[in-house]
């Protein structure tokens, strides 16, 4: 299907929250056939632990609190295990980060000339640049995996799918397809679902 405008934003990481980090990690690594390639010690300052799982060059992050009064622990108490956020990569996040903190970018360098289009380009969430040789090898090991689509549900009472798609396209520079849907530069389709009373909003499905 042809696109109607160029794409400039990549879906790079999906974050999930879980009460039991070890159990959830074991379930996902077993189902996906992957391994943990990084655990970020810096998130402990916010009372959290995490693991990173490779989906080719993109990531699933599982986050779990070890302290009670954190944003994640409050979300778990309210909504249970599930989707938390998506992290996008663009060519110039600095210009937009004051209003869109979910965007990130990596400068073009001789070693990294195509950050958005190279499946295995460096990613800050996997630690310092010295880690890149090791984790890029793991990315390539699981290169047969990739995200296909994700679904996000609008807030309860919001059923304006067309308006929400237009807002995503304008705010995040995500491509518009001729079928009216949205698509990231790495081919991941974003499906928006109407809000429903009593049904959790936000990230609901990942394929």
Automatic annotation (TrEMBL):
InterPro entries per UniProt: Glyas_Bleomycin-R_OHBP_Dase, Glyoxalase-like_dom
GO molecular function, one term: dioxygenase activity
Keywords: Dioxygenase, Oxidoreductase
Organism of provenance: Glarea lozoyensis (strain ATCC 20868 / MF5171)
Superkingdom of the source species: Eukaryota
SUPFAM superfamilies the UniProt entry points to: Glyoxalase/Bleomycin resistance protein/Dihydroxybiphenyl dioxygenase (SSF54593)
Name of the molecule in the record: Glyoxalase/Bleomycin resistance protein/Dihydroxybiphenyl dioxygenase
Domain Glyoxalase-like: 15-130
